[in-house]
Amino acid sequence: GIIDFLVSQHPIAKVLRDNLVFKIAPMLNPDGVYLGNYRCSLMGFDLNRHWANPSPWAHPTLHGVKQLIIEMYNNPKINLEFYIDIHAHSTMMNGFMYGNIFEDEERFQRQAVFPKLLCQNAEDFSYSSTSFNRDAVKAGTGRRFLGGLLNDTSYCYTLEVSFYSYILGGPTSIVPYTEEAYMKLGRNVARTFLDYYRLNSLVERPLASTPKTR
């Protein structure tokens, strides 16, 4: 949904393309998924625990993406502002995010802006389920590792989306996810970037009259 929206002719997509560069790796575990594994690679590695020191032989996709991120970060001509790792969640409902905890209170507060905006755009995204942590078990994740590597102008998240359902209105209003519902959440993630950059005055406001259709 994110990719389809960004390459579409939608006026918001055009504004995003005119102002931002998106680097997208559609899947970091192609061999594992091909075999039916949603978490482990062909060699049995949980790839989202090896970001600190990925092997070019055992974790080639992680190694390649990490090198790309570091190269961009070290390029003075590039402002690397967002890293979002996208996963399915096997137990919780809705879409939600994990973020990092920082000693700098202002940085911590700024990190909460994007998920709050996404919550306004996507009815199936839950800010109440969004959490910011430094759990030792998650130390090898992309979100934790890059959150410690990149500077305070970069925001690192894990976007989790339920395998099953999302809740609307109350605990009894459970709606099963469909392919279209997942696609819609992706579109809403993409359009939230416009809200974020408008809020920070980095993108002009040429679309004030555009209907905000979900």
Q: In CATH terms, what is the architecture of the largest domain?
A: 3-Layer(aba) Sandwich
Broad CATH class of the largest domain: Alpha Beta
How many domains would you count in the coordinates?
2
How would you spell out the order of helices and strands?
HHHHEEHHEHEEEH
Please summarize the sheet with the most strands. Answer: 4 strands, mixed
Low-pLDDT sequence parts: 208-214
**Do you know the CATH topology of the largest domain?**
Aminopeptidase
Strand content: 5-15%
The rounded Rg comes to 17 Å
Q: Structural class from helices and strands?
A: alpha/beta
Percent helix among the residues?
25-40%
**Cα-to-Cα separation, first versus last residue:** 12 Å
CATH homologous superfamily annotation of the largest domain: Zn peptidases
Q: Which word captures the global form?
A: globular
What would you note in describing this structure?
By secondary structure, this protein is α/β, with parallel strands linked by helices. It folds into 2 domains: 1-19 and 80-203, Aminopeptidase, CATH 3.40.630.10; 22-77, no CATH class. The protein contains 8 helices and 6 strands; from the N terminus they run ααααββααβαβββα. It has helices at residues 2-6, 11-19, 30-34, 60-73, 105-111, 113-121, 142-149, 179-199; strands spanning 82-89, 95-99, 131-132, 155-162, 165-167, 174-176. A 4-stranded mixed β-sheet has the order 1-4-2-3, covered by helices on one side. Strands 5-6 form a two-stranded antiparallel sheet. Strand 5 and strand 6 (174-176) form a beta hairpin. The radius of gyration is 17 Å and the shape is globular. InterPro entries: Cytosolic_carboxypeptidase (IPR050821), Peptidase_M14 (IPR000834).
